[in-house]
Specification:
alpha+beta, 5-stranded antiparallel beta sheet, 2 domains
Length: 173
């Protein structure tokens, strides 16, 4: 591989890694061609970019993008693939789903909005992360709940109070 080809791969990785706020580095090394094709198809269907590159090129790409990824560097050994998606938890869910049939991919490291997660033991945590829209929906739901309780209380009690006042008024007349 020439220096120009390596620089082109590094540039592609830099664009992919910096295009979203999250990316995963996983080991897919022992997958046979059939399982690798299945993984690539699953990634395509879930809008996850899967790029396989040499570890040295991945490390150089990490050095070129903004942020401190020094915690991830020791985890980048053996066969590595980079997974990039717009929604941060999609690659983690994809890995969990694919591992129901296979022992790979294994999560090496992940970066989610500047947070670094190293090791396969972080997979459940990453899969459980909520997206920005899900968090906004939860907050709106929490904010609406007390207001709805007050409105329903006033509406329900308002009818009773009006009835009592009307009865008292009729008695006085």
């Amino acid at each position: 591989m020439t220096r120009e080809e390596k620089n082109q791969i590094i540039d592609e990785l830099v664009v992919a890694l910096s295009s979203t706020g999250s990316f995963y580095i996983a080991d897919i090394g022992t997958l046979n061609s059939e399982k690798t094709s299945k993984l690539r198809r699953l990634c395509f269907n879930r809008q996850v970019q899967l790029k396989v590159a040499k570890n040295s090129l991945i490390k150089k790409a990490l050095e070129r993008i903004e942020g401190d990824f020094s915690e991830m560097i020791p985890a980048i050994k053996g066969s590595s693939a980079v997974m990039v998606a717009e929604v941060p938890n999609v690659p983690a869910k994809l890995i969990k789903d694919f591992r129901k049939e296979s022992d790979r991919p294994v999560l090496k490291a992940a970066s989610i909005d500047g947070g670094i997660f190293v090791g396969d033991n972080q997979l459940d945590l990453l899969a459980a992360l909520k997206t920005k829209n899900e968090l906004i929906g939860d907050i709106v739901g929490l904010l609406q709940s007390p207001a709805q309780s007050v409105i329903s209380g006033l509406t329900g009690q308002g009818g009773k109070i009006a009835g009592i006042l009307k009865t008292l008024e009729e008695r006085a007349a």
